[in-house]
Amino acid sequence: MTTTRSTPPTMAKASAPIARALAGRRFFPLWAVVHHRGRKTGRALSVPVAVRATADAFVVALPWGPRTNWAQNVLAAGECVLTWKGVDHRLDRPELITTADARPYFGPGTWAVVNRLIGAESFLRLHR
């Protein structure tokens, strides 16, 4: 699964302070924080992400594609911790999934945002 989408880094930089301030908070279930380790440095890292939760998994849209460092770190480690709604969740078995596989996790309104506005073509499913 590959993506040719190229999102300007300025968009990520502009939204990062807001995302970091809200991600993982109890009152803001749209965003979470993925805590992972750098696969080369071993450093503890974290990144805010938009997330959809189900009883058995979390699904993260990857608008910048599956080759982002944090996604590659989580895939290489096979696990991560996700802070969502103020609670840390230990997750494992990360897997890249297709748009078709991700679709059932989203309602019509959120799917329209993810599909049309964000244009994500890749998704990461993290199992509880």
Kindly summarize this structure in a few lines:
By secondary structure, this protein is α+β, with helices and mostly antiparallel strands. The protein has helices spanning 9-22, 69-77, 99-102, 108-118; strands spanning 31-37, 44-53, 57-61, 79-84, 87-97, 123-127. The chain is 30% helix and 34% strand.
Explain what you see.
Strand 2 (44-53) and strand 3 (57-61) form a beta hairpin. The chain starts with 8 loop residues before the first helix and ends with a strand. The protein is of the alpha+beta class and 128 residues long. A six-stranded antiparallel beta barrel has the order 1-2-3-6-5-4. It has four helices and six strands. The radius of gyration is 14 Å and the shape is globular.
Overall pLDDT, averaged?
Answer: 85
Residue windows where pLDDT falls under 50 for at least 5 positions: 1-8
The major beta sheet can be summarized as: 6 strands, antiparallel, barrel
SSE pattern, N- to C-terminal:
HEEEHEEHHE
Shape: globular
Tally of DSSP β-strands: 6
Strand order of the largest sheet: 1-2-3-6-5-4
User: Strand share of the residues?
Assistant: 25-35%
Specify the helix fraction band.
Answer: 25-40%
Question: How many DSSP H or I helices?
Answer: 4
- The end-to-end span amounts to 23 Å
Derived structural class: alpha+beta
Q: State Rg.
A: 14 Å
Organism: Pseudonocardia yunnanensis
InterPro entries: Split_barrel_FMN-bd
Protein name: Nitroreductase family deazaflavin-dependent oxidoreductase
